[in-house]
């Protein structure tokens, strides 16, 4: 974490390549107990640049179309739904009769933007169920609402952090029944996630560690919440040689699926362009020169190949 004695125009100490004032500065200098709130607001604002740019290129629509072809889908849960562009694409790809689309995100600012974009009525939203509370240790714990969820409609938005126990959400899922598909598209980490007890408990040293932990959690979640033959779709952004990265990723996924009741359907690449705004969260590196390399999304499709039950598999190395 950068130190608070940096000047606004200094490169941020996190080595993101951004100015301190545009990166961790507002978080470090936030009022006491408000660092998570500030970080979530920053993330929602900055990710909007990316999400709008990707939507304009038809990237979300292509991912939704790929999912719809892979499985007969009426009920889908999107983990980390962000500002709602992915949910919009899913709603356009999934037929209306019997449809249920659920978007969950730990960031209430993202969910509010999604609610506005999709015009979701109040009956279909539970936007602020998690309250970050600063502990004496300096880390933030998540206080999760215990009130039973009562939601209506075929497009729902719920404030959920899958890395934090949430009995009310689990009870709602039990009553709702299994899903045909679960998606995790472009998982992102807000810049104060390292200040949470989740990060402390995991011993995470980087955003990559947190993403891997989330992917592993989503795999276990899908074991319990997908129907038999249901599909799990994970989408990540990369830069480099498309064929080489895709082949490497496919090898890693096949290895990671050991111990999980899933079979790999496909690993497909989608080349896209990143926005040029300095507010964007682009795939970049301060350690490696990525100029001239393609930016692309890899969509990993996996099918559940056993009978769902309540058993949670603890094996697996994460994706």
Describe it for me?
- The protein has one domain (about 60-305): Vaccinia Virus protein VP39 (Rossmann fold, 3-Layer(aba) Sandwich), CATH 3.40.50.
- About 35% of the residues lie in helices and about 25% in strands.
- The protein has 9 helices and 10 strands.
- A hairpin with a 5-residue loop joins strand 4 (about 130-135) and strand 5 (about 140-145).
- Helix 2 runs parallel beside helix 5 (about 110-120) and helix 3 (about 60-70) packs across helix 4 (about 85-95).
- The longest helix has 22 residues, at about 35-55.
- InterPro entries: SAM-dependent_MTases_sf, SEC_C_motif.
- Pfam families: SEC-C.
- This is SEC-C motif-containing protein.
Oligomer classification: single chain
Mean pLDDT: 90
By helix and strand content, what is the structural category?
alpha/beta
CATH class: Alpha Beta
**Strand percentage:** 15-25%
How does CATH name the architecture? 3-Layer(aba) Sandwich
Overall geometry: globular
Number of helices: 9
Kindly report how far apart the N and C termini lie: 26 Å
């Amino acid at each position: 974490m950068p130190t608070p004695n940096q000047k606004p125009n200094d490169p941020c100490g996190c080595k993101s390549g951004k100015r301190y004032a545009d990166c961790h500065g507002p978080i470090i200098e936030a009022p006491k107990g408000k660092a998570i709130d500030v970080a979530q607001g920053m993330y929602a604002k900055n990710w909007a640049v990316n999400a709008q740019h990707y939507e304009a290129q038809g990237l979300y629509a292509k991912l939704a179309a790929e999912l719809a072809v892979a499985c007969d889908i009426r009920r889908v849960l999107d983990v980390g739904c962000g500002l709602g562009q992915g949910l919009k694409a899913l709603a356009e790809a999934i037929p209306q009769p019997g449809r249920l689309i659920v978007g969950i995100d730990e960031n209430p600012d993202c969910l509010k933007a999604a609610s506005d974009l999709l015009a979701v009525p109040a009956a279909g939203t539970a936007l602020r169920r998690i309250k970050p509370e600063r502990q004496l240790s300096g880390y933030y714990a998540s206080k999760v609402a215990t009130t039973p969820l009562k939601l209506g409609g075929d497009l729902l938005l719920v404030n959920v952090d899958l890395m934090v126990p949430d009995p009310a959400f689990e009870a709602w899922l039990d009553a709702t029944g299994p899903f045909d598909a679960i998606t995790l598209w472009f998982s992102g980490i807000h810049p104060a996630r390292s200040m949470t007890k989740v990060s402390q408990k995991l011993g995470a040293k980087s955003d990559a560690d947190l993403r891997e932990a989330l992917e592993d959690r989503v795999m276990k979640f899908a074991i319990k919440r997908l129907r038999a033959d249901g599909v799990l779709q994970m989408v990540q952004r990369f830069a480099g040689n498309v064929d080489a990265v895709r082949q490497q990723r496919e090898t890693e996924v096949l290895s990671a699926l050991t111990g999980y009741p899933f079979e790999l359907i496909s690993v497909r690449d989608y080349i896209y362009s990143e926005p040029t705004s300095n507010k964007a969260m682009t795939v970049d590196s301060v350690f490696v020169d990525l100029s001239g390399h393609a930016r692309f999304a890899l969509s990993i499709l996996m099918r559940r190949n056993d009978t769902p039950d309540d058993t949670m598999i603890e094996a697996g190395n994460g994706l």
